[in-house]
Amino acid sequence: MALLDSDSEGKSEQEKKGFINSMKEKNWDFIEINNVFKNDKLERTFEDLFPQNLYIESFNEYCSGLKDFSVFDKNYTNYEYTDEINTPIIKTLEKHFFSFINVEKHAKNSITKQDIIRILINKTNKMNES
Questions:
Q1: CA 114 from chain center: how many Å?
Q2: Largest pairwise CA distance in the chain
Q3: What is the pLDDT of residue 124?
Q4: What angle do CA 125, 129, 130 make, to 5 degrees?
Q5: Which residues contact 92 (CB under 8 A, 6 or more apart)?
Q6: What is the Cα–Cα distance from 108 to 32, expressed in whole angstroms?
Q7: 41, CA 20 to 30 Å: which among 10, 49, 67, 114?
Q8: Per residue in 12-53, pLDDT tens?
Q9: DSSP track, the chain
Q10: How far is CA 16 from CA 7, 19, 20, 64, 91, in A?
Q11: What's CA 107's distance to the chain center, in Å?
Q12: 130: pLDDT confidence band, cut at 50, 70 and 90?
């Protein structure tokens, strides 16, 4: 089973030869993130499947860990979650992330979303233990 984002990248993935060939194989299928929501007009990505407050906590923890690696050119401050964020959440958080990095260095830096997900999964595992 392939899980695809419901955005332009997810659509372009569906057009790739490897994806098309895989879906022709027996026992292969895919689902888009928006298949689980009643409103499929919005763009959504994998990150939008998680509660926003937990994802933002994990994002802030991830960014705090980057402070020692000289990723940020300006003093990083956590993203403050006050209201629900439009999806995809990662677009809002990328703006925040890159606001602390000089423009000429944007291409050399990116958010490692897998690391944020790892932090988030650790948080949810700890919740399940209590």
A1: 8
A2: 52
A3: 86
A4: 120
A5: 85, 86
A6: 30
A7: 114
A8: 999 999 999 999 999 999 999 998 887 778 899 999 999 999
A9: -EEE-BSHHHHHHHTSHHHHHHHHSTT--EEEGGGGSS--SS-B-GGGGS-HHHHHHHHHHHHHHHGGGT--SS---PPP--SPPPSSHHHHHHHHHHTTS-GGGGGG----HHHHHHHHHHHHHHHHH-
A10: 15, 5, 6, 36, 24
A11: 18
A12: low
Residue type, 130: S
Q: Dig out the tokens for 100 from the structure.
A: 């602390």
Tokens encoding 71: 């990723």
CB 44 within 8 A of CB 37: yes
Long-range Cβ contacts of 110-115 (<8 Å, 24+ apart): 111/59, 111/62, 112/62, 113/46, 113/47, 115/62
Q: How many residues does the chain have?
A: 130
